[in-house]
Amino acid sequence: MYSYSGIKYIFDSGLPVDGTTISTLTSCVLVLCGFMTGAGGNAGLTGAVNSTAKTFPDKARATATGVVISGFGLSAFLFSTISRLEFAGNTSSFLRLLSLGTAIPMIVGFFFVRAIPLPPSEVPEEEGRSRDQPISMDEQDGEHSALLAAQEGVSDAPIQLSRRAALNQGLPPNVYGRKLWTSSDFWLLFTILSLLAGTGLMFINNVGSMSQALYTKSVEVYNPIDAARWQADQVSSISLLNFSGRIFIGLVSDYAKNRFSFPRSYSLVLVSSFFFISQVMASLIVDDIKHLWMASAMLGLAHGSVFSLFPNVCLEWFGMPHFSENWGYLSASPIVAGNIFSVVFGRNLDSHDLSSPDVAHSTVVSTTCTLGRGCYVDALYLTTAGCFLAIILSVWAGLRDRRKLAAGAAHQNRASEVLWENPGRDE
Questions:
Q1: Which of 103, 121, 250, 330 is most solvent-facing, going by the fewest CB within 10 Å?
Q2: C-alpha angle 328/332/334, rounded to 5°?
Q3: Could you tell me the pLDDT band of residue 227, with boundaries at 50, 70 and 90?
Q4: Nearest to residue 213, comparing CAs of 359, 363, 374?
Q5: What are phi and psi of 206, to 5 degrees?
Q6: Residue 72 and residue 243: Cα distance in Å, rounded?
Q7: What sign has the CA pseudo-torsion 281, 331, 66, 168?
Q8: What is the pLDDT of residues 95-143, one digit of tens each?
């Protein structure tokens, strides 16, 4: 609420009477408002995912999470539609709508949304072993730590267990803090998410410029109303498919895990492929404004899928006790590739501005490149390569997870055989 209200106040105040730019203090306040906007949105997303993950059993967790956070993908379409119908050309009123429309649901959720503990019958077997279950002779450090903690009277304190050690012991993983930052699994997911979400952010933030370039090339007389309509169509396509992608990947990953016992990390390859296809379409196929919606729709599907799948993979790999903290670190990854891709796109576009000799276009909109796809395609080659690298890393992540699962199952089988062969060793 404060962030959008601050932006609205700065917008309404306008430029100083005798100046052409805003003051340094106003710029700093604007940056602070932007920071609060992002922080508030991510806090709401993390809170929603955390509550949902703790409330629903593992067999339906990804689907439930996808349905809940699908509203984040649909919000752009909702607000842009309301703005177009009710506040056309009135930016100040639209900012007021954003301040209230984004704050009220969070306030209501603060008072009414609570995680509902799962009944014992719905808790997976690996999330707790009975007190009388024997422990094999070669248990890892995690259970020795638990024993020491119990002797010191702090048996309820969660112990740190990597996914590999947890699978070997039949326990849920619990990785956080320093152990998270030194985990190769964390940096693998961090890199994949940075490449994919960075591509999505670059495309979403610059699809208006892409639409403008394609539209300017395709018409003889530039019409700003038609140009704005084409830009709005891209926003709608991205938002609707973003909404659908969050639900789709939840259903797919849950079905694959429940039916075929595939870990959710396998779905990383599918999501990475969506991104790759979207960039191939935008860079090699789409050369007309009428077809840009196809690349936008595929990008929306991919972007929605990635932010629905990764929280569940984060939970599977690093555990529930510190999920919000771990997902907070992981969700910061788009800052890296997102900024790099966006800077490259901007420089690529700027290098082509006014490069066309087409006077009829340049006199109508003097700051727009009229080369169509050629205005920005070099930047898309970079994101296409980044998405291909993400596919390779996703395959590697899936294979690593598969080996850990196989090793954990083999370890459990060997432990069971030892117990059966020595049923009275403690007597």
A1: 121
A2: 145
A3: confident
A4: 374
A5: -120, 5
A6: 7
A7: positive
A8: 888 888 888 888 888 888 887 877 665 555 444 443 344 444 444 444 4
* pLDDT reading at 63 higher than 70: yes
For residue 247, give both structure tokens: 């639900």
Indicate the residue type of 333: S
- What is the arithmetic mean of pLDDT over 74-96? 78
Task: Judge contact between 291 and 274, C-beta under 8 A.
Answer: no
Burial 382-420 (b: 16+ CB within 10 A, else e): bbbebbbebbebbeebbebbeebbeebeebbeebeeeee
Which amino acid is located at 114 in the chain?
R
| CA atoms of 159 and 177, how far apart (whole Å) | 12
Token pair of 225 as six digits: 């109303």
Among the listed residues 162, 197, 166, the one whose alpha carbon sits nearest the alpha carbon of residue 182: 162
Query: Please, are residues 174 and 158 in contact by the beta-carbon 8 Å criterion?
Result: yes
Q: How high is the pLDDT of residue 368? A: 66
pLDDT of the residue at 120: 64
Helix (H, G, I), strand (E, B) or coil at 174: strand
